[in-house]
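Worked problem 6 (solution included).
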Amino acid sequence: MHNSLFYLRFSIITAFAVVFAVNFEWPQHTKSPNPTSSWNSEAFSIGQVPCLPSGKSKTFHPEDKNFPDNPYMLMAAAHAAYRFWPGKQNRILRSWGFTQIQSFNQTSTSTNGFAAEHNDFFLLAFRGTQEPSDLITDFTVTLSPAESPSAASERVHLGFKIAADSVESSVLQTARNAQFSRKPLFLVGHSLGGAIALLSAQTLQKENLPFNSVWTFGAPKLGNDALIQDLKNGLGEKWKRFNHPQDPIPALPLTPRDEKNSKQWAETLAPVLPFFKTLSENADYEDSPISRATSGLSRKAFSERTLKEIARGFLEHLPRAYVCNLSKDQLPL
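Solution. The predicted structure is:
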């Protein structure tokens, strides 16, 4: 009797279990789709980017290198390259939708930056001057042969060349990844980082590896006129160059060709500071418009106004200042 009752209950429970299993629709644990493939400033927070757009959000358009929002977005990425702790940098980039983030740090040259992939593009960002050791790169102003097959007369800033060479393997690998994924590659850098980005773009051209464009913000002089003309001819519209009119760094190294009095102060200071001797011996850097901040450097006497202009100019050079000016569209190409 007891066995019959047990089997009856077991049969009823089993029947209900079979009916339940056949008819019940189990929840599907699928990944929610990304609402947009675009990278836009709505992902930014004030702790990540110093200035957010005051009105409409800005969106990066990789298919259109001339889209007006692109400079702000890429300068925000260049600003992120200054983040000292890689862990924080990675968290910021992930919150912006980037994946496959690879930070590079060449301690021998103090060259830093990151490579990252977004839904529809790759990004290479190079850090500018941040640590005391970066000044060694900045002040190695000797003009060295550029090893360009197109012109033997080309000369390049030796410090920038050494820095770019130290991260060449990371640059080439990122370009190959972008090519394999059939996504455009963008290179960006502020200050020293802009110089390294430009030399890296030149390396990609020599290796016949495609990239979309290279963006430099407040970058210093890279070499002599022959080198710059070769870069302009080779890169064309791929080189996007942004400089604040008061930023003194794009006019440096200040050489005797910039203003007639600069040779005098360079030669005067050469016995005291070896750097100025090197500077006076490497006077063939590209001609460039002198900013309002640097125009007073070669005057015989510093006025109070001149000193204020110089101080203001260095403040305008900070990555924060470039981000904030671009957030208000106050820095034209």
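Discussion: Strands lie at 39-40, 59-60, 99-106, 111-117, 122-126, 143-145, 155-157, 185-190, 213-217, 239-242.
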